[in-house]
Amino acid sequence: MPTNEMLRREWISAGYKSDMGSAIACRPPVNRSTIRLYNLNSVKHALSNIENRRIKVSRFADLNDPFELLAANFKEHKTRQVVRDWKDKSHSLMGLLCFAGDWSEPVMWSHYADKHTGVCLGFDVNRSTVQQVSYQDDRILNALHPTSIPDNLSEELQQQLLCTKSGGWRYEEEYRRFVSLNDATLEGPFHFWPISGDIQLVEVILGPLCEEPLESVRQKVKLHFPNAVVFKARLAFQSFKVVPDARTVF
């Protein structure tokens, strides 16, 4: 499929922003109950995920934001400790699948795709299973009862803590799916979630500096996900964006 500005209109009509990375490379989800989301990795991990039809489950204690689950503004030491204990408990019981709303931001490729040498996987995900991160410039103001314990934090506060990050992370446009570790597959120290059902692989985008042969990746993807499109990205000529390389899109 050649790059086509007509495709951009389809993305806009489907509710996506006009400068979506894939807007001239492929079509948006047909089903409005589905959202297109992205996950960036090194080549090694991306190909492993494709071959094993899985995606890694992230753990709260291992995320790169030190304020993870600690977005509330609490002055008292006791209330801060309650939230830290709740974070520890959450880490032991659940993990999360981390997605981005787009792949065109170069900082994302630098941080998560091995300095632009990696691969971005695009998924169609059931909208009802993911939550959009809220980016705030100030920490959450919330009062805790002096006798509060991790088990009785309000559902509202828990949801705020799970999905609030500093405004400095806005470029990630993050969406999260929270999963029980008991339902994930444990391999060594890592947990994985299957790419099946309400998570379907539909795009594979090689980074601008990725040295993996495009045709080799296409063959591997075709073996496991025959309907997924595979193309290479490049640095934009007129903006600070990562965009599809039209020569590799068909």
Summarize the topology.
Elements: H1 5-13, E1 34-41, H2 43-52, E2 54-57, E3 72-73, H3 77-93, E4 94-100, H4 106-112, E5 119-126, E6 131-132, E7 134-136, E8 140-141, H5 155-162, E9 164-166, E10 174-180, E11 185-187, E12 190-194, E13 199-206, H6 214-224, E14 229-235, E15 242-244
Protein name: DUF2971 domain-containing protein
InterPro entries: DUF2971
List the defining traits of the structure above.
single chain, 250 residues, alpha+beta, 3-stranded antiparallel sheet, 29% strand, globular, DUF2971, DUF2971 domain-containing protein
Describe this entry's structure for a reader.
By secondary structure, the chain is of the alpha+beta class. It has one domain (5-248). Helices cover 25% and strands 29% of the residues. It has six helices and 15 strands. It has helices at 5-13, 43-52, 77-93, 106-112, 155-162, 214-224; strands at residues 34-41, 54-57, 72-73, 94-100, 119-126, 131-132, 134-136, 140-141, 164-166, 174-180, 185-187, 190-194, 199-206, 229-235, 242-244. The protein has a five-stranded mixed sheet. Strands 2-12-11 form a three-stranded antiparallel sheet. Strands 4-10-6 form a three-stranded antiparallel sheet. A hairpin with a 2-residue loop joins strand 11 (185-187) and strand 12. It starts with a helix and ends in a 6-residue tail after the last strand. The relative contact order is 0.21.
